[in-house]
Write a structure and sequence with these properties.
Layout: H1 6-38, E1 42-45, E2 49-55, E3 58-64, E4 67-70, E5 76-82, E6 86-95, E7 101-112, H2 117-123, H3 128-145, H4 150-155, H5 157-172, E8 177-189, H6 191-244, H7 247-256
Antiparallel strand pairs: 1-4, 2-3, 2-5, 6-7, 7-8
Length: 279
């Protein structure tokens, strides 16, 4: 077994220390480069964004459009705000005019007003969805739904949607948030109300079935009455005809006669006599 000499250990130690120093120098150089890049006096605002200029972290009110911008290093920085159309989905609960509990899921498409992004950042920062949009959606839903009964919320759903959208637009516009589209993705009632609606529909269907059956019975009865009246009228006319013209009886006998006389006559049964008028 071969052992390393003290000189070899010293050489290996020096090499490891040299590698460690190179690593530390590399890390320091990387940090310095990052700091330099971050402190460059220029930058870019991407498509669908606006840049809010801060000076010593205070909003100056200056807004940069898409493209290249310049700033004073250390003293100034630019916060980028997204002005593209965004989507927010909020669960909302409210009570109808007749005190039915309504739960719904609201889908909202919106964008920031490019000219007011500095105000948005100054008032609420970048968390404007949670701080501004969601509470106003809840408030608007409660205000509009309270005007309608549960039945009206079903039959006038488009009207309800339009009123909520209008109210949201009015409340969010001063905050620099513009509503593009609004939809009630899901609209649910309490189980008690759903059961009542189902019972009502079932009762209406049963009533309609009973009504149709009654109409059928009345129709069939009217048909039978009309048929009986027709037969009675026919008998009356035939009786009147026989009374006025006895030859009608002979006509009826001819209609029923098969052209053959009976083979025998018993019990004094009379032969049918038909008077055929001569030519």
């Amino acid at each position: 077994m071969q052992y390393s000499s003290p000189e070899d250990w010293a050489k290996k130690y020096q090499q490891s220390m040299k590698g460690m120093k190179n690593l530390i120098y590399g890390i320091i150089a990387f940090v310095i480069i990052v700091i330099i890049i971050r402190q460059l006096p220029f930058g870019t605002v991407g498509a669908g964004e606006r840049g809010v200029l801060l000076r010593w972290n205070a909003v100056t009110g200056k807004i940069y459009d898409e493209g290249l911008f310049f700033r004073i290093p250390v003293m100034e920085k630019v916060v980028k705000m997204d002005i593209k159309i965004q989507k927010d989905q909020v669960e909302a609960a409210a009570s109808s005019k007749d005190l039915q509990q309504i739960s719904s899921v609201i889908a909202l498409n919106f964008h920031l007003n490019p000219n007011l992004v500095a105000n948005v950042y100054q008032e609420v920062g970048v968390n404007f969805k949670e701080r501004i949009i969601d509470p106003i959606v809840q408030e608007s839903m409660k205000a509009v739904i309270a005007k309608f009964t549960a039945e009206q919320l079903i039959t006038q759903r488009e009207t309800v949607r339009d009123q909520i959208k209008t109210l949201l637009y009015q409340k969010l516009k001063p905050h620099g948030i513009v509503i593009d589209e609004f939809n009630m993705v899901d609209f649910n009632f309490s189980k008690v109300f759903n059961d009542a609606i189902e019972a009502k529909v079932t009762a209406e269907q049963q009533a309609l079935t009973a009504k149709n059956k009654l109409e059928q019975i009345k129709f069939e009865a009217e048909q039978r009455i009309a048929e009986a009246k027709g037969k009675a009228e026919a008998l009356k006319l035939e009786s009147q005809a026989i009374k006025e013209n006895p030859q009608v009886i002979q006509l009826r006998l001819l209609e029923k006669w098969d052209g053959h006389y009976p083979q025998y006559v018993g019990g004094g049964m009379p032969l049918p006599v038909v008077n055929i008028p001569g030519k």
